[in-house]
Amino acid sequence: DVKVTQSSRYLVKRTGEKVFLECVQDMDHENMFWYRQDPGLGLRLIYFSYDVKMKEKGDIPEGYSVSREKKERFSLILESASTNQTSMYLCASSHGDRSYEQYFGPGTRLTVT
Amino acid sequence: RKEVEQDPGPFNVPEGATVAFNCTYSNSASQSFFWYRQDCRKEPKLLMSVYSSGNEDGRFTAQLNRASQYISLLIRDSKLSDSATYLCVVNMYSSASKIIFGSGTRLSIRP
């Protein structure tokens, strides 16, 4: 059974703090994704990685960076958290040739105060 | 205009009813289409792919209309467990970074 885990279910941070969100998948998937999900806006892609150390910007990369040092792990970094980054963050992974079949983690609800 | 648009609902229907909802997409270069399901406070999961010829999986039927640029999902004999948000997903250029999720249609099945 595919498993994607995220480091925290709930997180509260202060404005200006550096925030790390970790995602680990156990299926040897090539692709990994970070999305944020907001009411009425759906899932929006922040960053995507198709291999170790490789990354592509998604639709809303501003204020975020990512790191993929190992195939199974994809980290999202908020360099200086702001209140407009309060959201649900979802990580996903997929095989390289089946990118549409994404397996999601349970999500991290981040609140920035 | 959003690239993928869905009626947010909620669609509130009685158990056993048939319900259908559509999703429109704006980019004619879109190549593949999918429906995901997201239960309340859970992560999205792939429900089914949508083929040009249409496809059926049990009580669920998905169809694609390329000319009018929409896809549809029909649920027959609805069950309480079908209550969820249904996300329309469009893949442009067969690129992993061009997978666009709609904001979802909420379906609530009442006893």
What does this protein look like?
The complex is a heterodimer of chains A (113) and B (111). Helix content of chain A is 0%, strand content 57%. Chain A is mainly beta and 113 residues long. In chain A, a hairpin with a 2-residue loop joins strand 5 (42-51) and strand 6. Chain B has 111 residues and is mainly β. In chain B, strands 2, 4, 5, 9, 10 and 11 form a 6-stranded mixed sheet that branches. Classes of the chains: A mainly beta (113), B mainly beta (111). At the A-B interface, strand 4 and strand 5 of A face strand 5 and strand 9 of B.
N-to-C SSE string of chain A, H for helix and E for strand: EEEEEEEEEEE
How far apart the termini of chain B lie comes to 37 Å
Share of residues in helices of chain B: under 10%
Q: Poorly predicted ranges of chain B (pLDDT <50, ≥5 residues)?
A: none
By helix and strand content of chain A, what is the structural category?
mainly beta
For the largest interface, the chains and their residue counts are: A-B, 24 and 21 residues
Q: How many strands, which pairing sense, and closed or not: the largest β-sheet of chain A?
A: 7 strands, mixed
Tally of separate helices of chain A: 0
Question: What characteristics describe this protein?
Answer:
heterodimer; A: 113 residues; mainly beta; 7-stranded mixed beta sheet; 0% helix; 57% strand; globular; B: 111 residues; 6-stranded mixed beta sheet; 5-stranded antiparallel beta sheet; 11 strands
